[in-house]
Amino acid sequence: MKAVGRAVVALVVLACLAPALAMLYDSLRGEEGFSLDAYSNVLREERQWTLLLRSVAVSSVATLLALVWGVAVGWTVARLRGAAGATLETLSVLPLLLPSIVVVMGWIFFLGQNGVMTNLLKSAFGLRQAPINIYSPLGAAFVMSLSYFPCVSILAAQGFRSIDPGTDRAACLAAGPWRRAWHIWRPLLTPYLASGGMLVFLLSFSDFGVPSALMVNVYPIEVFTEFSAYFDVKRAIATAVPPVVLVAAIFVARQALLRARPYETLGSSARPVHGNVPRPVMGIALLAIALSTLLPVAFLAVTAGGDYAESLRTAGDQLLTSLRVSLLGMIFLVAGGLLFAAAYRGLGRAARHVAEALVIVPLIVPGTAVGLGILFYVTREVWPVSSLYPGPGIVAYAAAARYMAFPALILAAALAAVRRNLLQAAAVSGAGPVRTGLRIVGPLIWPGLGAAATISFLFCLGELSASVLVNPPGTMTLPVRIASLLHFGKDSIVASLCLILTIFTALVLVLGMLLVNRPLRVRLQDADRTA
After folding, report:
1. What is the pLDDT of residues 372-405, one digit of tens each?
2. pLDDT greater than 70 at residue 68
3. CB atoms within 10 A of CB 390
4. Distance separating alpha carbons of residues 340 and 347, to the nearest angstrom
């Protein structure tokens, strides 16, 4: 069984890594065989190192800001209860699921060259230029931190909930808040914050929409420019490899750092402490939610006016294409995640660590590089990738190849929570694998399955960096359409399209939450009737 599990995991990982492997192979293939000419040319240029350092700096600043927002939101969510805590937790997740192009467009209409706040400040103080320059690396880092801080807040909330409340109360008797935070919270929260920070760094490093909208030249944009402007595929691929190596080294360092770290404490079973959130922490949490969601959406609505009908006429086909692509991508991701999770359960400890690392690798690769790898298979008519072109399937595959880590790890955790004695009892009773899966495993992992499907759909809905390269003629998605209208389209139409994308994201999120929670209520009601 372990051999079968390794083969299934290898198949899923290979499907996700195929674009990156094709990109690497094509870059090393010269006219006379193996060649490193493209890499040597790129590495000798000062421009490439400057862009690499700029990307690292922007991603690092975004990560530090996201840690500030995320810790405050996670602490607040973990301590609040009832409707207030549930509402805050839902709002705190929304920025991650919103396409980053939507968030950055809200800020452009707020603080851009002709933004609402910029025009007010110009008229109030008689300024000729915008007092705040959002079109800068610091502005890009700020916006990306607001888009990706939920990666930190979700894990930070789980970390605060795992702290033994008895230990925390005992520390209150002898230590102040700063000493308690350093000696108790810091060691226990380090794994969660390091994992969240690494995700923010990866997503920021590979982000294409925010830097392109703010006209900040970073490495993913350079890869796209080398291909689309100069039509130099080998140079574009060689340009994409150094950041992959850099981020892979960061991932390995993170794994070594957390090897001996505890993930939970053992102590009393008392309930976590609720309600004692300091006002500064609460203020930072509310500010993060306002800046990341409420303020951009509000200024999108102000800029949009009433041009929704014209916007749908302009990009209605692209909206339908995005929905088809998202549905196909969700099917690819959930199916691949289920295969990965089922095989992952039977692996040994060392094999699990390898599988986790490999399934995360596609997040390291810039989306533009993934698009180049897929084009390698399409242009050479390599089956089965070439069979998806032209059509929405090729764009769905690009999104699935990038984001397989999320459904795979979510479903692996859901399956790990299913007790083996239930499966053994079903086998003794004569139930086959299909019946066991439908009657026992399915209901138990339904919350994880619903969460994986919802996240997969929303990530596919907002995917931009790979789609901008692999979109076949007549199959343009809505984020790509918004990006194409960014500098030349009418502001009201661009804002309307961003709001339409936001509305669909919110509707899918609410529907996903209802689907995830409904089976739990049914099981509780059935239990009450049985009792």
Report:
1. 788 888 888 888 888 888 888 899 999 998 898 8
2. yes
3. 14
4. 11
**Which of 1.10.3720.10, 3.20.20.80, 1.10.10.10, 1.10.8.420 is the CATH number of 41-304?**
1.10.3720.10
Q: Which CATH number fits domain 1-35+310-531: 3.40.630.30, 1.10.3720.10, 1.10.357.10, 3.90.1150.10?
A: 1.10.3720.10
pLDDT tens, position by position, 455-504: 899 889 888 888 888 888 878 888 888 888 876 777 888 888 888 888 88
- 3-class DSSP assignment, residue 33: strand
Element (H, E) at 46: helix 46-79
Q: What is the pLDDT of residues 285-311, one digit of tens each?
A: 999 999 888 888 888 888 887 767 778
Size (the chain), residues: 531
* pLDDT > 90? residue 328: yes
What angle separates helix 233-257 from helix 349-364, to the nearest 10 degrees?
A: 140
Report the C-alpha gap between 292 and 142 in whole angstroms: 10
**Contacts for 194 with CB less than 8 Å, ≥ 6 apart:** 254, 257, 258
**Taking the alpha carbons of 123, 125, 126, 129 in that order, is the dihedral positive or negative?**
negative
Distance CA 383, CA 162 (A): 47
CA distances from 116 to 120, 123, 145, 343 (A): 6, 11, 22, 53
**How many H helices and E strands in the chain?**
27, 2
8 Å CB contact between 8 and 351: no
Token pair 């574009």: residue: 236
d(CA 458, CA 277): 31
Q: Which residues of 296-334 are buried (b: 16+ CB within 10 A; e: fewer)?
A: bbebbbebbeebeeebeebbeebbebbbbbbbbbbbbbb
Fold match flag (1-35+310-531 vs 41-304): yes
Comparing 244-258, 368-382, 403-417, 465-479, the range with the smallest average pLDDT is: 244-258
pTM confidence score: 0.78
Residue 30 phi, psi (nearest 5): -100, -175
Distances in Å between the Cα of 103 and the Cα atoms of 108, 147, 457 are 9, 7, 18
